Amino acid sequence: MRLLTYLFFTILVLSCSTSPLKYDRSEQLVKHDEFEKAVKIEKPPDTDPSMGPQILPPVETSAKKTEEKRKEKTGVKPLKKHKKTAKVEAEVPLRRQPELEDDTGFQGRRPIVDPFGVGEELVYDVHYFKVSAGEMKMKVGPMAIVNGRKAYNFSISLQTSSIFSSFYSVDDKVEIFVDYETLVPRVFQLHVKETAQLREARMIFDESTNRATFWEKKVSSEKGEEEKKQTWDILPYSQNVYSAVFYLRNFKWEVGKEYAYRVADDEQNLIFKAKALRKERIKTELGEMDAIVIKPEVMLKGVFKPVGDIYIWLSDDSKRYILRIESKIKIGTIISEVVSIKPGHN
């Protein structure tokens, strides 16, 4: 959502141009030595979802350590053996952590019904004053292994239409890796290719230390070359600003009910809150679809931060696809509407 709003803000306020910024050292922007030393990402070869389950690389951590960590993170007490009787106590489920999150439809940290399918792709037409400004895609790629742990591979991409590209060209993509067991983001990689700037950003969330590290390399027509690094303490089970868009699909979204989860961004620890307002049947290019309308808000240190009027329509089914996003800005409203849904497989 932040990426979408940022995109059209830059389109509206920056001067006219027709192509992305040229930079003769662009390969240096992509290279992040510290990040590459800290993260190992293993992706399986791309496969046709109809060919059946993918084969993942072997997980390097031992099964015992992985299981113990899973139970610790998912809020399930480990099995206990009594020396004398050799009987095993049943696993006792605890309240899903963190407690500010709703636990309906979950077993520990995992949703009982996984809304994400490998190969899923949603395409959106993004328009402003009824003029098509660009296309957004949200994808679920093949599962990856990140530092020895199974992870979802999500991505969001934005590209301006030919009309808007004559004013400001955008070709941006972010790839997000989210731990399969804990649903906590491990890594994101952002690639920005625009008229006024080229930018590469990387972020790591370290669950063992609850620390976030963010790197950014940027070159712009206004300020030239810039580099930035941020590290800060984050709260357990925090999302980043991009994984947060996918994470909301895990909840049941019952009308009249409020939902919340943590988001860490730009050295701040925020609370994302949203309320399910109503059910509604909406018209799309794919036909009429049942939806649940939610309105998000953001809190910093207990105080609501102004984010404007944003409304999100989720499909009223187990997938909870994002069907429509409306974001009101100072002049008009940016609307993103789904025009294509390619289901994936679990």
Structure description:
This protein has 346 residues and is mostly beta strands. The protein has one domain (2-46, 103-342). 13% of the residues lie in helices and 45% in strands. The chain contains 6 helices and 18 strands. The strands form 2 sheets. It has a 16-stranded antiparallel β-sheet that branches. A two-stranded antiparallel sheet has the order 2-3. The two termini are 26 Å apart.
SSE blueprint and pairings:
Blueprint: H1 2-13, H2 26-30, H3 33-38, E1 41-42, H4 63-74, E2 106-107, E3 110-111, E4 121-128, E5 131-146, E6 149-160, H5 162-165, E7 171-179, E8 185-193, E9 197-206, E10 211-220, E11 224-233, H6 243-247, E12 258-265, E13 268-284, E14 287-300, E15 303-305, E16 310-315, E17 322-328, E18 333-342
Antiparallel strand pairs: 1-5, 2-3, 4-5, 4-18, 5-6, 6-7, 7-8, 8-9, 9-10, 10-11, 12-13, 13-14, 14-15, 14-16, 16-17, 17-18
